[in-house]
């Protein structure tokens, strides 16, 4: 009996290894497709196909065929080949008591796309109708089909009908429903409005496409939105000025409520010409916020100059750097002159010597500057954005900072919260740094759930700058085989240990002994465990679904489906917050 049990355990281990290998290949296919790494995606399709055939699993073979059809459609293959793969997928997926919606919809999208390439609109709509009759009566399956109908209508040139269908599936004022890909829906809206000669609305949706595609790693949609925006600009279509900091500045992430409040304030002050004081800890992103203030203002077309008052940053006298200098009858302009017509960012303004603080106050009050060793004041048109890590009130009390200058600078105040107070931003920031720091020809790097959870739980005393440095260090040490993945063993021990210290105590339901409770099926235990994990991640991400989905390795739509099934309300984990003060 002992030998039988050992043999059974060995077989179970092999089965679990094979199942894990299958899941890995199936997860990698869309990841590489979205990144337009089609050769790598094809390799995983072939590997998945070999496993499905070895198991003689018809449903798994159907899933492979669905992925193959989608990949062929991405690569703009011959429509006949796409149709053949899609029909094979649908036939195999129909074998069984129930149909898996996700691969069925994947094959249907590719099939409809191929029919549209052939100009066969009637057949394309018949395919959608047939899919609707095959899938369960579930809004999460019906909405993607409605979006497909809208796309067919757009291909036929019926943009009004397309807009009506799309509005029926989506609420433009809200995030897309579960089952709909954010950037794909936004791209379709952009294309519809472009067809209707509504350039302002088209640009708004195309920019939203670009932003969400960058956040979710959907490189194909990102490139398509970028091309559409470039074409619109080439046609000299009047466009909206960029007013959203998440659009205007690469890397400005506002998934957390705290950073959403900062972004809201930046939008509110867009018409203003008043000085801005940006406060926050070192590395929190003050310079990024200062750039966003400039990029979303009416001065975005003018110069953006930065100067640091930190005495360790320069050998040249700060006065000459800032205000210019007259030497032997020749004037050498300073940063103020270079920023004329634009914005001057003064970093570490608390370190500005008292002797220069009155000159800066004159610039703010009168719009005039007198160079060092000069006698004549010059008029300049400069908006000042100052940053500091210090408490200026305390500096005033100590006599190290002029009170009138403090009051003038903080006509508008923006506080950038430390990273530990906006943990929901960490997954998107990590993905941004992964995309930005890896070389163009490097393989796509992912982060495991335990590693991402450690990044979220760690307190980051160095804030965003420290996170960037850790991602860059991890990329150097990550193994390229079998798939480049950042796991706990790649992260610094101080980060893993620090994350463990901030981990919440294990609840009774999460305890290992809970799995031994009697009178429960395996599904009961797995569902309870799954719910506990999702709720823990939602709590760490302040209830932000996109960030939580990244941590869990799910799509946003996939997480919504699990939350609905497990009766989880994300809003229960969202803290209340007040908007950032304008002054």
The CATH level-2 architecture of the largest domain is identified as: Alpha Horseshoe
- Gross morphology: elongated
- Kindly report the spatial arrangement of strands forming the biggest sheet: 2-5-8-1-9
What class would the helix/strand composition place it in? Answer: alpha/beta
Radius of gyration: 28 Å
Task: State mean pLDDT (0 to 100 scale).
Answer: 81
Distance between the termini: 77 Å
Outline the structure in words:
By secondary structure, this protein is α/β, with parallel strands linked by helices. The chain has three domains: 27-248, Tetratricopeptide repeat domain (Serine Threonine Protein Phosphatase 5, Tetratricopeptide repeat); 268-417, P-loop containing nucleotide triphosphate hydrolases (Rossmann fold, 3-Layer(aba) Sandwich); 421-573, Helicase, Ruva Protein, domain 3. It has helices at 2-34, 38-55, 58-74, 79-93, 101-117, 121-134, 139-155, 159-169, 182-195, 199-216, 219-234, 245-248, 257-268, 286-295, 318-323, 335-338, 354-366, 392-397, 403-409, 426-437, 449-457, 463-477, 493-502, 522-540, 545-552, 556-566, and strands spanning 276-280, 304-308, 325-327, 330-332, 343-347, 368-369, 378-379, 383-388, 412-416, 446-447, 485-486. The strands form four sheets. The chain has a five-stranded parallel β-sheet with strand order 2-5-8-1-9. A two-stranded antiparallel ribbon has the order 3-4. Strands 6-7 form a two-stranded antiparallel sheet. Strand 3 and strand 4 (330-332) form a beta hairpin. Mean pLDDT is 81; it is low at 1-9, 236-242, 504-522 and 577-583.
